[in-house]
Amino acid sequence: MLDAATIVQRFLETKMQVHPEVVRYIAEKDDPGLIDRIIASVPGDTVVVSVRHIPGFHQDRDGSRFLTDPECEVIWGAAGTSRGTAGVADYTTYFRDRYQRLGECIRARTALMPIEALKKGSRYRQETCSIMGLVMEIKTTANGHRMVELEDPTSTIPVLFNKDRPSFSEAETLVPDEVIGVRGSLSSDGRLFFAEQLFRPDVPLTHAPFRSERPGQAVLISDVHVGSDTFLEETWNRFADWLSDSDVSYLLVAGDLVDGIGVYPNQDQELTIKNIYEQYEVFGSMLRDLPSRIKIVISPGNHDVVRQAEPQPAIPPEFSANFPKNCLLVENPAMVSLQGVRVLMYHGRSLDDYISLIPGASYENSTLMMAGMLQRRHLAPCYGKRTPIATGKEDRLIIDPIPEILHTGHVHIMGLSEYRGVLCVNSGTWQAQTAFQKQMNITPTPGRAVLIDLQTLGSRILDFN
Ligand code: D5M
Ligand code: FE
Ligand code: ZN
After folding, report:
1. In the CATH scheme, what is the code of domain 89-199?
2. pLDDT over 70 percentage in the chain
3. Which residues have C-beta within 8 Å of that of residue 88, sequence separation ≥ 6?
4. Least CB-packed of 14, 200, 252, 302 within 10 Å?
5. Rounded to the nearest whole angstrom, what is the distance from the C-alpha of residue 292 to the centroid of ligand 1?
6. Mutate to test the pocket of ligand 1, among 310, 352, 438 (most ligand atoms within 8 A of CB)
7. Domain 217-463 has CATH 3.60.21.50
């Protein structure tokens, strides 16, 4: 039995106070791992841990409390937590939030100067120092150097990455609106900053992924595209049969559940189900055919019925009424914990942006772009490109905390690799090549799922073709 003093002490070690009700709850549960799970899920600036920080802890309207499935918790991105698209004022607060939060990761590694103070104080000229800001504009100079306009809350300054310096290769992968730190020196006229070193928020080299203490298996899929004439029903049925005989406890679906209506011109000619309600009904019946012991976590994608701006809300009850009870509907993106193993689910629309911005990127190699997301600690940094972003008070596309697994889809091509201890999974599709993809030269890899062992974080690709 855990006593109150031990519990309080554990929280104090992390510099947080804890509400007596939380102490009582943990003592009652007598689950030593619960403290770590709570600590892992509270936001970094928390002073007092209250009952609302207990994962899966809900308060009913009548005040009685219940715990949902304690092994599958939504860390953020629960249904109903995204806000509407905001006005101009929120656009400023949105980017301020991004600068502040991603800045913390960079600040930890180097002492920073505000850009305005640097420009005004002549004593800093030609001395090495560091600045940090949002990348506003990226240009290549006549001599092939890279010139970047960097903005912090005080001012902006052009930063030059010399093509003959070591930091140049990193500068080639800069994308608009990402937050970076730069070490270098100011020109003698004070108008230009010469870059020597580039810092990204990144995953710390010391990052040690969590592994579940008890056995557990999860399967990751995406892009089912129910209703499309290229949806592979027989392949899906083989997958469903395999799931029934398996020990799998969790199924994660990262968007494009159905093909939708009017997503692209003349789509109706490629639909077998032309009614959006019916598409979700069929998807729901496919989930009902799976074993009810499997917890199914579902987030939307760009073919789904919700708004396109990210974060996308969860599939509303109107369309999910017939989904089985073992379904958990979350937003896109969402961070879920499976027995303490954190999975960041993101459909992956921004891969369409990254592909044109990062040298060497391709749909066949989407995990390279996913590593790029982790380096920037951001799922979709570029504002105003193909990925529509809902600018709220907070930047909901920041990667925090660092997950054990980053799960995307959208490109319809299976990808699996690791970046600094984070497993990157692009889970492919259940749709054969469409006419559009043929035209775009995209060769999908349908009918595959990724199986994860939560104890070892080992992964395996299952092929149902
Ligand atoms: O995306 C299916 C595939 O098609 C994926 O590889 C991205 C690609 N795609 C989607 N939309 C576009 C546009 N507008 N241009 C180029 N490539 C695209 P899905 O979301 O399932 O339609
Ligand atoms: Fe898709
Ligand atoms: Zn998609």
Report:
1. 2.40.50.140
2. 94
3. none
4. 14
5. 33
6. 352
7. yes
